[in-house]
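Why does this matter for the project? Reviewers at the last site visit asked to see concrete outputs rather than summary tables. In response, this paragraph embeds two records directly. Each consists of the residue sequence and, immediately after it, the corresponding structure tokens. Nothing has been edited or filtered.
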Amino acid sequence: MPATSKKRSSGRRSRTTTRRQTTSRSGKDAISLLKQDHEKVMQLFKRFEKNPSEELLDQIENEIKVHTQIEEEIFYPAFREAVESSKDEHLYYEAVEEHHVVDLVLPEIKATSEGSDEFEAKGKVLKDLIEHHAKEEEEKIMFPRARKAMGMAQLREIGEQLQQRKQELMGVTGARATGAFERMLKPITGGRGGRNRGRAA
């Protein structure tokens, strides 16, 4: 009997430990979340290449703006604080500047007419910029450096912060209903009225 009790107790402990490990691993780390964003945007660009439309461009813009916002608010500052060398810190400034270039290209696309060669060509330029930026982060330096400098525990904590902020911006907690999301985009897009004014000019 005692031996049986020990086996049962050990089995319960094992199952409890497994559940705890599963729970701790269920949340995505910051890098996995950001890579997921990259993949989603690139899938939208594939659709845009087949059917370049204002509707798809709006979806791409929303995804880009939310992604860059959570990176600049949360991930980039955490990365900058964690790294030690000036070379690593340079990656922070380079990534921010790449975001700035995207912000310059977006309104130019939105000022052109859907269906025009210029609209499609500028969309291709935007895709190339985003693809280059994502590849630089994922494959070359920033994300590998971040994994080394921060460690998985910190990356999971930052991942939770990114997810929460993203939900706020995407409207899960009412941001879209209150107009906060649109206000965030206004300096870049000017709304559809801004697009029409750009064409008229």
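We now turn to the second protein, recorded in exactly the same manner.
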Amino acid sequence: MQRILSGSFRLDRLRSGLWRVRNTRSPHEIALLRNLRATEQNFPADELPEEFDALRLEWNSPDSVAVVLGAAGRLLEADSVVLHEPNERLYDGLALARFTPDARRFWQRIFWLVRLPGGRALLRLVARGRRA
């Protein structure tokens, strides 16, 4: 499985063995890389770019993930990658409950009554009268 992302990325070292790659442009993807290392012996991990324009992740084997930072970057390897891709339109397809104008006016009045001194007691009396 392969995933190629483009944008404006920043690489941050969170702690020993854990790196975070975040996209500063929308949709703001975040990738957490565990045990990021260079595949070439002569390329030290301290020379990783702080900012780059593309991120390529390739899950070839269950033991490692191939990582390329930047369009012409060098091949790196990580033990695992967690990729968070936010979906801005996630809830658009759901039929969520919406208030009608009458229901909105009703609840505005209820909340107005609750704020008045003695309003809660008045609502309790009305609610008890409706149950009987």
